[in-house]
Amino acid sequence: MKFVDEAYIEVAAGDGGNGCASFRHEKYKEFGGPDGGDGGRGGHVWALADENLNTLIDFRYSRKFEAPRGEHGKGSDMFGAKGEDIVLKMPVGTIIRNADTGEVMHELLRPGEKILIARGGDGGFGNLRFKSAINRAPRQKTLGHPGERFNLQLELKVLADVGLLGMPNAGKSTFIAAVSNARPKIADYPFTTLHPNLGVVRVGPEKSFVIADVPGLIEGASEGAGLGHQFLRHLQRTRLLLHIVDLAPFDETVDPVAQAKAIVEELKKYDPELHAKPRWLVLNKLDMVPAEEREARVKDFVRRLRYKGPVFEISALTREGCEPLVQKIFQHLAATRDAEKPAVHVDPRFRE
Q1: What percent of the chain has pLDDT over 90?
Q2: Do residues 215 and 231 lie in contact, with contact meaning Cβ atoms separated by under 8 Å?
Q3: Nearest CA-CA partner of 55 in 181, 173, 198, 192
Q4: Better-predicted residue by pLDDT, 44 or 273
Q5: Alpha carbons 160 and 237: distance in angstroms, whole number
């Protein structure tokens, strides 16, 4: 199925039904009085976060969603029925913006979250509402209120704990396939990955995290070069970035250090907050480096890159070094979540 992470739609809630001006008509019953009912409320438009969806493809082809209006009021004290609500199912992580103003209206961050995006119009009052001691035969009624209408921009940012960075063919897809349940396309040519892949990494019983593999970046990605720039937004909600580097490129004229610096620079240009996220260096394809040269090549790479953070040496193909890396990632994510929890205030009278 095609991956779509942006869509434009139009939503319209239902208009309210009109009130009715009517009088009771019954044989041998004069002065029956007003009996016009109110109009019904128009249908609402809701958005529901569905964890079974991972793309906005449904909104690429169906762009207009309109809830039914409320029924008009009738005589004999009959009120109009309300219009049925419609529910639009969207992936978790969807941002709903007003396409005309650019304002963020809602964000769907939790599975099962349901929010109102367009409110139906209230129904009008029938003349029964205007009856009083001094107005025994009211003839006024009110029209139903119009429902809300919006042009919306839907933008999907995948919810993942860890994001993978790297040049095309750095081994990101091989790595996510080695450590998670994801099965991305893997081939020996660049730009194999055309859309983000999500995988759940299970560390132990009830211990897991989500990892996202996005298309490879190239120099100039922040200005639109290559494919990766379209999906950089999917890294903005991650807690940790893994910068995967091919330490044994097929082309000997390629400098991995220069490529690594270019990717870091693209992150900085695209979003300084994304650049400031914790980023670990993962040196991949060590199985293709002779054992006696590995240590020297790794030290030379880190020295030339002037990198001060954690460095991990792995082979995604043979899974060498992957398990220690996964354990370290889980420990880091657990510590980050604990640090983000609000402090619990304990009454000093009950402290031990």
Answers
A1: 20
A2: yes
A3: 198
A4: 44
A5: 7
